[in-house]
Fold:
Amino acid sequence: MKNSTKSLLNLLYLCCAMSVVLFILTMFGRLLGAWLAWNMNENFPFSLDDFFVCLKLTWMGPPAGFIFWYFYYR
Structure:
């Protein structure tokens, strides 16, 4: 690794970017699923638990970012 500072900044960027992308995709998927299962006579079926599931899946961003960094930037 010739430029280790730049490489570590790439690692940090990739981990954060993957976390944000995973949050957006899981939130979209949960909202789409809730919308498709929605009975118009009842409340919208998206709850705070669904939001916490999206936040939990966001923690898969750092390992995914590390894998991209390891095989592409390193």
Notes: Residues 21 and 61 are 8 Å apart (CA to CA).
